[in-house]
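Field reference: "sequence" (input) and "structure" (output). Example, ADP-ribose pyrophosphatase:
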Amino acid sequence: MGIIHNASFGRNDVTIEKTETIFKGFLQIERVSLRHRLFDQMGSSPQLTREIVHRKQAAGVLLYDDQQQKFALIEQFRIGAIQDPISPWQLEVIAGILDGDETAEDCIRREAVEESGCQVDRLKHLFSFYPSAGACDEVFHLYSAATHLPQQGGVFGVVTEGENIKLHLIDYEDLDLLLDSQRLCNAPVIMALQWLKQHLFTLDRL
């Protein structure tokens, strides 16, 4: 049980010796020189140099409608997937970057309207996680929300921000087919749909 609740080391076991900003734009990149403790050894590591991408926290939500037996995903172009063998247009949960002092839940409510036209009231927190802790300090807060989905999808997004987002409404009965396909290529959507599968299993047992 210890491995579940207690980390082996903490922040005080890392010594940062030098930090240098090497790029500052929409993202900020720093080069960090550091030493850290080692497992099963005395002392610290030799000096290591790592680059870290600083990115604001983000939040996303899976919208679902038990009455209609549907859930919502969005599809949009992503530069990081430009070399994807299937498509740079990725299927995702509704999501966005926290703006200023905005909370994750406020961010989700704003993004839900912008990307789907849906109002969201109650939110269920699923996970908060690092999408790519090997290089980036972004934290992603993932939620689900039961809501009343529209009868059909559409195209949404804030045009002035370069958004062109297609809303898909997917039947619950197609969930397993989607999970087995090669169209899900990012962690939040896979995690959210795995949660939805558990949710549907609970409904079936009631």
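The radius of gyration is 20 Å.
The chain has four helices and eleven strands.
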